[in-house]
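Researcher: Here's a chain I'd like modeled. Treat it as a single chain, no partners, no ligands.
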Amino acid sequence: MSSSFVELARQTITAYINDGKIIDPPSPLPDEMKEQSGVFVSLHKKGGLRGCIGTFLPTQDNIAEEIIANAISASTKDPRFPPVTKEEVPELEISVDVLSKPEPVLDIRQLDAKKYGIIVSSGGRRGLLLPDLEGVESPEQQIAICRQKGWIDDTDPITIERFQVRRFH
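Model: Modeled as a single isolated chain. Structure tokens:
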């Protein structure tokens, strides 16, 4: 199962960057790709982040379409990086995270930085952080990073949701 998600992301990025084409989902659609779920596609090159875009709730009809849309965005629309070039495509390390449905957190003791990703919201602003990231050891660190990503001031009231991921490399 893991290789099918990552392979679909790689095929998508290769076709889009090299030929400007958006590929179709596999046909027939494998069972593990039929459900709807939020999906993040993360790109690394030589150990460093090169792009990461995703959806915490599904926006497409199935996981395959979610992977295709987010793989294109991670390689071309992450505002932190220039678009991936043809030369970089073979060097990319790709991971795909399939997210569970977010659930409300009422107490910080319900969080675990290795097990749960979090979404921190205040008004219309929102920051999200995937779980089990290098250098992020505590829920307090997760919350601080999410506040920064969402432009949420330290004094603004927040709501927190948590989710789990199935991570594929």
